[in-house]
Amino acid sequence: MDFDYGYSPQFSLLWAWSLVASNPGDAAIAFVFLGLTLLLLLSIKTCLVGASFQFRRMTLPSLLLDAYLIIMLVPSIFWFLASSGSIRYIHLIAIDVAPILFLLGVWFANVRFKLTPRAILGFLNAEPVPRAEDKLLGKLQTLMLVVSIAIAAGYFMTAPFVPLIASVKDYGALSSDSVRFNVYSLPDTLIFAYAVANRFLLPFCVLHSFLMAKVHGKGWRLRFWATLLLSLVVTSLSLERSPSFGIFLVLLVADRLTSQKTRPLLYAGVLLVAALVGGLIHQAQYQSDIERADVSSYMGNFLVNRVWIDPSYMTAVAFHTYNASTSFLGGRSIRMLSLVGIPFESFSSIGFVGDLWANFGWTGVIFGCTSLGFVLQWIQGQVFKAKTVSALVIYILFLVNTPWLLYGSILSTMVVTVFVVGILLLRILPRLEARMSPLAVRPCGALQSAKRLPQQSN
Length: 458
Prior knowledge:
It is built from 19 helices and no strands. The chain has helices at residues 13-22, 24-49, 60-73, 76-82, 87-113, 117-125, 136-158, 163-169, 176-180, 188-216, 218-235, 241-258, 264-285, 295-321, 352-360, 362-383, 389-401, 413-436, 445-449.
């Protein structure tokens, strides 16, 4: 098959089985590589990394690696079987080697910073500790909501039309391209501001009000539902799928980390609602007909084809586009490298492995994947120590932010922005409270007397 950025993959079990049945030799090779990769990962985890990395615990490295195994490693087998030429073997090897290099990077961070299992997992096992700076979060949440509303108002004033509003008024009258790329009609500054609101400000507000409702009860519950509704409306203005889907992921992760028991039925319900919203928005993006009888197919299409299959396909496209017969981009698709003089070229979102390959080939895959594991483990062990309410909010945002690396570039502007802003907030809040109140060293009275969030169960 031809690999093209404009193609939208459609997965089916019949298609997958036909690929395996028609290419038994290649299928055997792919599954042997998969088995060897899993074996090496378990060996490195057991012999080198140890208890500081656990697949079943929600640390930044483990969540990304878990997501990679499901979203990237397994479906890449199908693209290997569907392709031809020598580049497909390079693609298969790179996809299988990437998680091994990533886990070695985690081990390097443990050695370099002397990170022990207690240092890594202590944050997850602890109960949230009331701190004086936590009382600033309510004011910060209000400020973030006001800023987000102002950004949404700027969207209304500068865009030729707002896709959500236009679709409600006259659905189907607009072209799909005008809807999908509407946000890029905004000034560059407003595009960035709207992305920050969708990826950090509004998720922060929803998450904070959710946790406070768990701590303080009734008074915050109404604020939580109002914040959630406002956030879903603002993130849906451009009819982009991922921001609204991310709001639900934030809530799912937050409940998992703050509940004593796992609640699979609740998590399945939240995921289904997220799939429903994502599926309907996907239909609206293309101004396609929406029929009540087909709602389940919209949800399935969104989860299977957009969330699961699409990243591995886009990565395969990157390998087939940039091979021995073409030159690599040399960093030109990574916007942040424009700060050091490398000219930026607009590029489709292809996932961090595809992005590393398209720019630097094997050098990028080897050093990039290793560095990513190193940095995420450093953030996990060095940034998150005391489990305050503010640290828990930022941590959950980081958890949800990390898997977006499978859908964007290695130095995605928004992924980096979320990490940088979050770390700065954790550093600034205690100092800000110390300046505002001479009693800042004392715990906040309201939080001291409130019931604590339960710790995560093992």
